[in-house]
Amino acid sequence: MKRKLIALILAMITACAVANPAYAADLDIPISDLIETRYEAVAWVTSSLTVNSYTVSSSCDYYLKSFSDYDYKINMTLEQSSNQKDWDEETSWSTTPTSRSVSFTKSYVPASGYYYRTVTTIDVYTKSGAYVETAEAASVARYF
Questions:
Q1: pLDDT of 8-43, one tens digit each?
Q2: How far apart are CA 56 and CA 93, in angstroms?
Q3: Which of 22, 76, 87, 94 is the most exposed place for a label (fewest CB within 10 A)?
Q4: Chain-centre distance of CA 44, in angstroms?
Q5: What is the mean pLDDT of residues 59-80?
Q6: CB count, 10 Å around CB of 136?
Q7: What is the mean pLDDT of the chain?
Q8: What is the pTM of this model?
Q9: DSSP string over 33-82
């Protein structure tokens, strides 16, 4: 009888501990005020790589904080590796943005038997040509 009572008490304690819900704080602060960004002129940048039967597609998405205060140069590079440690440039594409938020995608027919990734860099300059920063993002490596 004593064992059953102890087992019942332990089961109740365990059930109470497991069933204790967690709640997120309800804040009246915009999320943009809670997140500290890494860059002065670039809000965010992402890179992705899609592998198809015969091609790979490199993509980047970005959002610029101030389109009128800076000049931007965007470079998207497709890199190749046999070991995922040493990366070589396979090809690259450059553009200058025409708006604050854009998706940029290019396709390429690579050699098979290698890993590939997309690296996007956004070089930022003042209107007078002084360097400000470089934002960078790399995709996950994919085997082709």
A1: 566 666 655 555 454 444 445 454 444 556 788 999
A2: 14
A3: 22
A4: 8
A5: 93
A6: 16
A7: 83
A8: 0.72
A9: HHSPPS-SSEEEEEEEEEE-SS-EEEEEEEEES-TTTEEEEEEEEEEEES
